[in-house]
Amino acid sequence: MDIYAHEPLGFDGILVHVEADIRTGIPAVEIVGLASTSVREARERARIAIRNAGFEFPQDRILVNLSPADLPKEGSAYDLPIALKILTKSGQVEDVPLRILAMGELTLEGNLRPVRGVLPAVRAAVAHNIHTCILPQENFEEANLVSSVRVWPLRNLSEAGRVLMALGKRVVPGRRTSAPITGTLDQIQDFSDFRGDETLMRALMVAAAGGHNMFLAGPPGAGKTMAAHRFPSILPELDMDEALDTASLYSLWGKTQAELIQRPPFRAPHHSASLEGMLGGSKPLRPGEVSLAHHGVLFLDECPEFRRDVLQALREPVEHGYVDIVRAGRIIRFPSDFQLIMAANPCPCGNLGMAGKTCLCSPEEIRRYWKKLGGPLLDRIDMRIAVSPPAPSRLIGSPRTSPGVFREKVLTARSRQRSRLKNACTALDNLRTNARIPPARISDFCAVTGAAERLFLSGMVSYGLSARAGHSILKIARTIADLDDCAEIGESAIEEAMGYRQFGEGDAVWPI
Ligand SMILES: [Zn+2]
Fold first, then answer.
1. Phi and psi at residue 271, in whole multiples of 5°?
2. Is the pLDDT of residue 428 over 70?
3. Strand 14-23 to strand 2-7: parallel, antiparallel, or no bridges (unpaired)?
4. Distance 302 CA to ligand 1 centre (A)
5. What domains appear along the chain, each with residue ranges and CATH number?
6. From the CA of 356, how far away is ligand 1's center (Å)?
7. What is the pLDDT of residue 182?
8. Do residues 213 and 261 lie in contact, with contact meaning Cβ atoms separated by under 8 Å?
9. In sequence order, which residues have a C-beta less than 8 Å from that of residue 497 and are 6 or more positions away?
10. Ligand 1 centroid – CA 215 distance (Å)
11. At what angle do helices 79-89 and 160-168 cross, to 10 degrees?
């Protein structure tokens, strides 16, 4: 029997082959293969657990090897595979001709405790053609989310004999036909109670349709936070693979998964978030907020309050859709393909530009406030929108468009993009939204001609826009044309797209 453990390093992690050699000599157990203290402690836990589970611990010289040898190994999930290997090697349980993934922490009584990162471990096993897993009972549902695997739950080590005997006879455990999918969009707050500005609603729909990052600037009470929290309700639901990705990241983070969530994740970290909490890190290595928002939305409210290094470090995940963390000389990667929404007051006191209010901030204070956000991160945000508080009449009237209609339009525009991007180039299969079109392909997908071209060029000159701003405007215009069911980008789309680029160019950080 080939027993594998799993080291949760990065998104996929690495499978670890567990071998044991038992020979006569002075009784001792040695674990080799860069085992950390927590893994080396497995020999003590395994020794007592094996006895308390009704087996005998071999009074011989035992060498356990964990390979690849140069990979540092951490955590208590190695207890079960090491104990199983010792039991099969000493002939106390059946040595079945199978490759098995085993994970679990042992208590001294021989009971099994759940471990984190089970879902990515099972997915990694399946990728290596291992389709049998032995895991703690509490991790059963999570492992069972992967359809092509037989999962054997154990409450304690004494059940191992029975399970391995069943495996030897090729008994197949009863299992569900498919993983339960829950967490639909019906369960989150939608825009039915939202009375924000009409232009803000339209901008949110454009951002959702094209996957564009968005910056909302406006005074307190303009509905920025409320809008951001309702934003996922107009996004497409996750497909099976995306839902598995998200669940894997939450599992690595330490949250046991029992079901697949269809709605896109929404993360709104507090502005005191550390660099590690945002990007991932700590020990043992866990994904950060940018990865927990993968396939969903990352919302930074009151963004100038965030640490400057945290804000600027977001540039890599925003640009590439993944984040690299250097750990013990290795580069460890977590996916982080999220849509970014940032919100801020127009100035530190919040009154700048508000009718009937007086801003108490000095020009220098306002400049410093915006400078924190300027540069590389702001460059990667297509839509920058000034949000005004809604007109009083909107607070009492009912919304003109129902949230369901918004969502339908977004979904139609998304499927239009997807087929266009897919048909144009197979190498760009992963390119699913207009926001992700690389600069080199802008002219292929966002071509403008005639009057639209003239309007675009004159706008670029009169507003003094950079090439990057020009690309953003063309991509947003492409999305607007998709929403309006137009094959060509027209003048109105260009005009509307330029309206979503209201600040953040050069020194002119705020238009007022
Ligand atoms: Zn102010």
1. -70, -10
2. no
3. antiparallel
4. 14
5. 2-168 (3.30.230.10), 185-499 (3.40.50.300)
6. 13
7. 72
8. no
9. 473, 474, 476, 477, 480
10. 19
11. 70
